Amino acid sequence: xxxxxxxxxxxxxxxxxxxxxxxxxxxxxxxxxxxxxxxxxxxxxxxxxxxxxxxxxxxxxxxxxxxxxxxxxxxxxxxxxxxxxxxxxxxxxxxxxxxxxxxxxxxxxxxxxxxxxxxxxxxxxxxxxxxxxxxxxxxxxxxxxxxxxxxxxxxxxxxxxxxxxxxxxxxxxxxxxxxxxxxxxxxxxxxxxxxxxxxxxxxxxxxxxxxxxxxxxxxxxxxxxxxxxxxxxxxxxxxxxxxxxxxxxxxxxxxxxxxxxxxxxxxxxxxxxxxxxxxxxxxxxxxxxxxxxx
Length: 294
Prior knowledge:
By secondary structure, the chain is α/β, with parallel strands linked by helices. It is built from 10 helices and 13 strands.
């Protein structure tokens, strides 16, 4: 369970990282363990001693370009002020701050993220992306920085009581899933008789479900749980436990093992400092950020 409760407060700008103000202004967070830890990481890992293609680009231009969809709350989402927020956004800010570079987030449909990474349009992808054998053929993955799993969002209480995806393998069902996602692959593999409707973002799937154009949307469990809370009058229901277990990681070009090593060390450092735990608490337990959604 996410443990999310919709408190109508306005503290969603708090962040455990500090970033150059010209890109993403943010207030000072708890300095006592974060700033000292980041400085230690920076001192231990000077950027100019590691020189892969991606790392050289980041060092030369002093900018870290991160790809994400902006449509995967609580991982990443655009708030009512038009700004990006979420666990992935905070993590990207932390990595840029540790590298002492500016952050540039490139929003694009989830299905285009890996292609953007391959074409050097972004330096990394942080977008609730599951680590799979197929994706690992295309990129290195740092992490995992969290673990998720597949679930369904539906208005059919009988469907919501199913315990395995095989029970959805019926030709009378229409199941939506994000294009080029593990959810879409999951439906095609485990429920081939069902009709797969590929969507470009979760809002599209939720709209189709509300209009009874599909029977269910297959997505990561946090998305399904959040949708039930976010639309209490829609009659949405979801599973009590996920049908799969999936590690979530940061995708990085396979052409730069030095950059991989650098980012993995930063992520390990964040974990030892307790920063990753703080981020999970903020986005999966606090729930005050829900008030900032459009």
